[in-house]
Amino acid sequence: MKNILPIILLLCLCSCSSDEIVDEQKPALEIMVDVAAYNRNVNDVASRASINNGVITSFAAGDDLGLIVTDKNGTLIYDNYRYIIQKSGLAYRADDAGNIIASDVYYNEDYKYIAYAPYNAKYSGFTSVDDIVASHIADFPTLYADQSTQENYNAADLLVCEAPIVNDTAIRLSFRHAMGLMKLFYNGDDTDLTVEHPTTLSHMYKPDGGTATYSYIYPPHDEVLVYGTAMSKQTIEDEGEISNFSYWQTSVDIKENGLIYISIYSHPTVSYNTAGVDLGLPSGCIWAKYNLGAETVRDIADRGGKWYDADGNVRTDLMESELHSCFDRGDYYAWGELETKYEQPALLFNAETGRISNTGDAFVNNSNGTQSVTALVSGSKKGYYPGTYADPGYSYAAIDGNIAGTEYDVVRNKLWKGEWRIPNEAEVDELTRNCDVRIIDWYYEDNTRYALWLDDRDPTTNEYINLHPDNSEFFGTTQVRPYRYLVSIFEFKSKINGEILYIPGGSWSDWSIDMLSNNSRSLHGLKSSDVYTSDYGGMYYFASSASHDHYDCASYMEFETIKATDETGKITNVTPVTKSSQYVDKDGNKITLMGLTQNGHRYTGMLIRPVYGGKNWNTNKASQSLIRIHVEEP
Known about the structure:
Elements (H helix, E strand, L loop, with lengths): L7 E2 L20 E7 L8 E2 L17 E7 L5 E10 L5 E4 L17 E6 L11 H16 L5 H7 L2 E3 L3 E2 L3 E8 L2 E7 L6 E5 L15 E6 L2 E16 L3 E15 L4 E7 L6 H4 E2 L7 E4 L8 H7 L3 E2 L7 H4 L4 H4 L19 E4 L4 E4 L3 E4 L6 E4 L34 H4 L6 E2 L3 H9 L1 E11 L39 E10 L5 E5 L4 H10 L20 E8 L7 E12 L5 E8 L1 E5 L5 E5 L1 E4 L11 E3 L14 E5 L2
Parallel strand pairs: 2-10, 11-16
Antiparallel strand pairs: 1-2, 2-3, 4-5, 4-7, 5-6, 7-8, 8-10, 9-10, 11-13, 12-14, 14-15, 16-35, 17-18, 18-34, 19-25, 20-21, 22-23, 24-34, 25-26, 26-27, 28-29, 29-30, 29-33, 31-32
């Protein structure tokens, strides 16, 4: 997103009234406009667009604003002039009917310039921002209470400027939000939630096809009661689970230009008792037993994929174990993304043209020095395709720092819900420091789980299609290589209470899938070149935080590996290597985070291991089956 979208309002020269003496040699006054994001200073500006995401607004073609100019005594010189922004990015003065007319606004060092948006004729005769804001608040119950549509929501979002930067030729209007913004998230079905005060859910704004977060503009006021009902579940002895609507309430302070985020939690769809391991960590954080998307024994029969030992024998002991899901990699997600690309239409990346090609297009390959065009099969099987995760154009969550518990947290938003969420940096560091870490086992996984397209067959001939040109020696044939990917099983044993957490290894997806599609391997999982990298067999999991130094980078849990082999080259042992990262905090202290790396991989796919509770989250077991509320100021 752009930090500043300057829009020049071109004000044309025209004659003045007899009581306004104008220097006709002066150039017309240019007006530059920008808007502060909610909860930011006016100097920390963002663009303003008609499509409002609820946190940041921006100007777009067709938006209008009002300009008021008085002399030093407060007498009106220019009374509520309307300006409309055009497609060109320029704006022109307009009459009440929207017709463009000539402007007679010029610079005078004794004049005071104020502005507001959107334009409203009712502010004619007003001479101060305070009067405009007071009028807007007085009209709020009748004109702005219903914000269910984009138009009404934008109208409620009054922008004002009373301290522009002015010189002889230009004026810069830095707008701020005169109202406050309240965002509300519910982790369950919207039909199971009601809001009774300060408005109803039906009067709040939710973008079509957007997240489950509702937004509402509200006048600044301390101790605003926000309450309603939501579905909750309780387990009663001898009666089992009972579902009912529980009353919830909280009190918040709505500040001018401020943002309040209210999260309403119903009973989690996955219990921490059955899906978590309590390692006795100081923060009270409970780690999940398995990854997002981890398969059960039944799942593996439906989607396919087998596990092997170093001699190519199927590891039925792992596949049928009650800990099967603890050892399974699960799905890959990009940072702040709510869907795995596995569930999206298959794409291929053309390294020659630098473009993404949809299945069904032609794929040009020059890797062997000669050009060939391979037709891709429309509707082929889904999978993690090479290059689709390494997408620098990926537009990640439009918030800074940490997505834990926000609408961009895939754990909370889409899957386990409740108080399950993505772990943050402190929790990864805490896990690493309070556990003894070793690799207790490893297995090799074939290509039928993550790259079904490599095994895609013609429905009439039953022959392999081999979609990807870099399928090495098998490209263009009816064969498919026997790929094996090494997965190390890491054991985290608590130094506090001896409880054990298992986490399977897995690199970031653009690396591991590149290895899957472009490098031949034997049944032993060895590359034909016998080159080994510590990433292969390592462990990479997204944390919820962006880098402390660069917000375009992500923090992720990382453990690499060291292998040992016998005289035949077969791997006989794998040991973990703990990574760490450092940064300097605001006080100049060097902070070391164990088990973490910070790098520019927000747009790639990684595994995710959820956590539950912890500091600043509800850890009271007596209330964990009831409705819970978390309020934060970003």
